[in-house]
Design a protein that fits this description.
Layout (H helix, E strand, L loop, with lengths): L1 E10 L2 H25 L13 E6 L3 E4 L12 H7 L2 E4 L6 E4 L3 E7 L9 H18 L4 E2 L7 E3 L8 E11 L2 E9 L19 E2 L2 H5 L5 H16 L1 E5 L15
């Protein structure tokens, strides 16, 4: 069975977590680059690249993907400071989104040559992890044609609302970035952006849908179990991923 190293890195500023991912991704890319240069007969699936899954929460931050549009941020720097929020241009796909406390952010750094070299299938698998987790709580979720992420009532006009945003980067089949599931998220922060560049759809959370605060640690455990199941892998929990990264090297 495939093995994925897992660590919950807790509350961490977005740029620090981004830099952390870059270090892990770079380690895998260096192994692959050496393999390409050497002309080794070893199959890509047999390379000693590592697979990781990180969970975290971020302080209030708006992030803009490579294909995003600045006009989808509806406030200026002064207002951002008043809100206690920051803004970061990032290298994932997608447009603008919000991260903040009460949201489970998942960052898989996977070598898809250990799984399936199909980025579309990878995105559908990430969505499936979320869909199965929501089902545990009696929430029926699905996909919206033409849009990534996980939605409630995607087929009902005027009712579609996003509960989980997704955006990834992939290089030589190594992924980074991932998903952001709204659990107890303060949804008011979404009022200051056009989420994912979509003007006619709402945003929601488990708390809003269930009408109560949700135990975020339980959600994390359910996400882990469903991730392992969907990707056919064993998650090996560790506290050693972050300490092994040289702090000076984790700037994006």
């Amino acid at each position: 069975m495939k093995s994925i190293l897992f660590q919950d890195i807790g509350l961490m500023p977005y740029e620090a977590a981004w830099g952390f991912q870059e270090v892990l991704m770079r380690g895998n890319l260096e192994i692959k680059s050496e393999w390409y240069r050497s002309g080794s007969p070893v199959k890509p699936t047999e390379l000693h690249t590592k697979d990781y899954l990180l969970f975290c929460e971020h302080p209030h931050v708006y992030t803009l993907g490579k294909s995003g549009h600045m006009e989808n941020l509806l406030v200026n720097d002064t207002r951002l400071a008043e809100m206690g929020a920051t803004f970061v241009k990032t290298n994932r796909g997608g447009d603008i989104t919000y991260h903040g406390p009460g949201q489970v952010v998942g960052y898989p750094i996977l070598d898809l040559e250990h799984f399936e070299t199909d980025l579309g299938k990878y995105m559908r698998n990430l969505e499936e992890v979320i869909i199965r987790t929501l089902a545990i709580h009696g929430i029926s979720a699905g996909r919206l044609p033409g849009s990534t992420g996980v939605w409630l009532d995607p087929d009902i006009k005027g009712r579609a609302r996003k509960i989980c945003a997704m955006g990834v980067r992939c290089s030589r089949w190594v992924t980074m970035h991932g998903f952001a599931l709204n659990v107890n998220t303060d949804l008011n922060y979404f009022n200051y952006i056009v989420p994912c560049g979509i003007t006619d759809k709402a945003v929601t959370s488990l708390k809003k849908e269930l009408g109560r605060e949700v135990d975020i640690e339980s959600i994390k455990q359910e996400l882990k179990c469903n991730f392992a199941d969907v990707f056919g892998a064993e998650l090996r929990e560790t506290q050693s991923i972050l300490p092994d990264v040289v702090t000076a090297s984790i700037s994006p």
